[in-house]
């Protein structure tokens, strides 16, 4: 197939057959379609859209571009969780050890920070020695030994998505529902899962800004899972403010450790337990949401979840002592309070300026090749709706030097609004999406 034919068809709003999708993606993975041709194709897809069958065909073609994990021999349910990306979202670091401590295998493949959102791999790499680049053979051995692995997308998994994602980032074609759904699901389906839980973020800090688009994304991924006999449940969770208090790699890892030790901030625990309940139900550990929640709380209270995190860290070359002593995590050179400029009510803690602020301090990337400073970021101790006095500390800024502290202050000036009154924030978990459709979320 001449690549120009596929580009012209999408440019003109026509559809490609499943065989044409396979041929085009295979040719791209083999280097026969150039990056500039794929860029034009992606923009045509972005503007013209893909129908349901085309989205399924793209997912299949990206999945077929690489290998799949065969984990049936583990003899237990294999469940992963994926988030569409947020600020302060360290849920994966808590959830993977927690759920795997309850007999579920968790082969978790995560990403790096992107745009204003943080990435699980960057947070894990704040732990001295921790390796996220494992081969599939090493990851499988870890799953066999301890029931969990926390790794990045390897060259073997959906390589076509890996190349396309980098192009989408560079060509402003990320925010398209079929492209996001196919990208996420091709990687997840390669993990050989028996179930998947999705955390689809909503609110101004989410990639897709309006609720209808977020629900459509969730429904698309649920139905792609069903095509492959992988049951998927999605929860819509709030990203109109950062999740938890810490934003920045080592700071978030420290907060995740506190959560595993029973001392996590309430909003982080609520979202973690809501997703964990769905993972235990998909795993068949229990059908009852209340029972699932009690098991999760029990694993935190007994120390089983924290102990499992130590085993994972040790298996991946990191220093497990950080769980007992988080002061062993890298520490910022400078730390200063940010105080309230006036009395009033916190009307907003905007996630985007906070996320971009972490990058400005050196804790995120503007180019894929950038290295990140794990020590920098913010700990924000107020939430929308809190009443504050003038001069009261609202946050701590962690930076490399005095200039970083000044940059951090400017970011917080943009992010934190104090007013006479505040709109109510979004519910932490608002919708549950499954094969049965969209329902309002009812907590266990
Ligand atoms: N995460 C992914 O893996 N792919 C996307 O397209 C967006 C978020």
Outline the secondary-structure elements.
Blueprint: H1 3-11, H2 18-29, H3 35-48, H4 52-64, E1 79-83, H5 91-100, E2 106-110, H6 120-124, H7 136-146, E3 148-152, H8 159-170, H9 177-189, E4 195-202, H10 211-227, E5 232-238, E6 246-247, H11 249-260, H12 266-282, H13 289-301, H14 304-315, E7 334-339, E8 344-349, H15 351-360, E9 377-380, E10 387-388, E11 393-399, H16 402-415, E12 416-419, E13 429-434, E14 437-440
Parallel strand pairs: 1-4, 2-3, 4-5
Antiparallel strand pairs: 5-13, 6-9, 7-11, 8-10, 8-12, 9-11, 13-14
Bound molecules: uracil (URA).
String of helices and strands: HHHHEHEHHEHHEHEEHHHHEEHEEEHEEE
Name the quaternary structure: single chain
CATH class of the largest domain: Alpha Beta
Radius of gyration: 21 Å
Structural class: alpha+beta
Q: Number of helical segments?
A: 16
CATH topology call of the largest domain: Pyrimidine Nucleoside Phosphorylase, Chain A, domain 2
Mean pLDDT: 96
Helix content: 40-55%
Query: Which geometry do the CA atoms define?
Result: globular
Q: Could you give me the name of the CATH homologous superfamily of the largest domain?
A: Nucleoside phosphorylase/phosphoribosyltransferase catalytic domain
Report the strand count: 14
The CATH architecture name of the largest domain reads 3-Layer(aba) Sandwich
């Amino acid at each position: 197939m001449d690549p120009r034919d596929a580009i012209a068809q999408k440019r003109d709003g026509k559809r490609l057959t499943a065989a044409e999708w396979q041929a085009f993606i295979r040719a791209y993975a083999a280097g026969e379609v150039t990056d500039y041709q794929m860029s034009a194709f992606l923009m045509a897809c972005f503007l013209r859209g893909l129908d349901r069958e085309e989205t399924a065909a793209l997912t299949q073609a990206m999945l077929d571009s690489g290998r799949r994990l065969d984990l049936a021999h583990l003899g237990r349910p294999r469940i992963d969780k994926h988030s569409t990306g947020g600020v302060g979202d360290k849920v994966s670091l808590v959830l993977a050890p927690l759920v795997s401590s309850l007999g579920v295998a968790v082969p978790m493949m995560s990403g790096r920070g992107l745009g204003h959102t943080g990435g699980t791999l960057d947070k894990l790499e704040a732990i001295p020695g921790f390796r996220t680049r494992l081969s599939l053979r090493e990851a499988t051995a870890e799953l066999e030994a301890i029931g969990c692995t926390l790794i990045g997308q390897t060259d073997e998994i959906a390589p076509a998505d890996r190349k396309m994602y980098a192009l989408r980032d560079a060509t402003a074609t990320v925010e398209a529902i079929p492209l996001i759904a196919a990208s996420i699901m091709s990687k997840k389906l390669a993990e050989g899962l028996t179930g998947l839980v999705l955390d689809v973020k909503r609110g101004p800090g989410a990639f897709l800004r309006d609720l209808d688009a977020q629900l459509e994304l969730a429904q698309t991924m649920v139905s792609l899972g069903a095509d492959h006999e992988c049951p998927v449940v999605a929860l819509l969770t709030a990203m109109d403010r950062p999740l938890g208090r810490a934003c920045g790699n080592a700071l978030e890892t420290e907060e995740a450790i506190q959560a595993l030790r029973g001392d996590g901030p309430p909003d982080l625990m609520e979202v973690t337990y809501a997703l964990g309940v769905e993972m235990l139900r998909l795993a068949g550990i229990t059908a009852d949401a209340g029972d699932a929640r009690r098991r999760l709380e029990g694993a935190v209270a007994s120390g089983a979840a924290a102990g499992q995190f130590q085993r994972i860290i040790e298996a991946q070359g990191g220093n497990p002592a950080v769980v007992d002593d988080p002061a062993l995590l890298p520490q910022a050179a400078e730390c200063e309070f940010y105080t309230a400029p006036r009395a009033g009510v916190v009307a907003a803690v905007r996630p985007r300026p906070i996320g971009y602020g972490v990058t400005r301090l050196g804790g995120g990337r503007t180019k894929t090749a950038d290295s990140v400073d794990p020590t920098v970021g913010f700990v924000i101790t107020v939430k929308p709706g809190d009443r504050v006095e003038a001069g009261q500390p609202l946050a701590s800024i962690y930076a490399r030097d005095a200039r970083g502290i000044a940059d951090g202050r400017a970011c917080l000036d943009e992010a934190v609004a104090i007013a006479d009154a505040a709109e109510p924030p979004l519910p932490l978990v608002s919708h549950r999406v499954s094969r049965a459709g969209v329902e309002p979320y009812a907590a266990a």
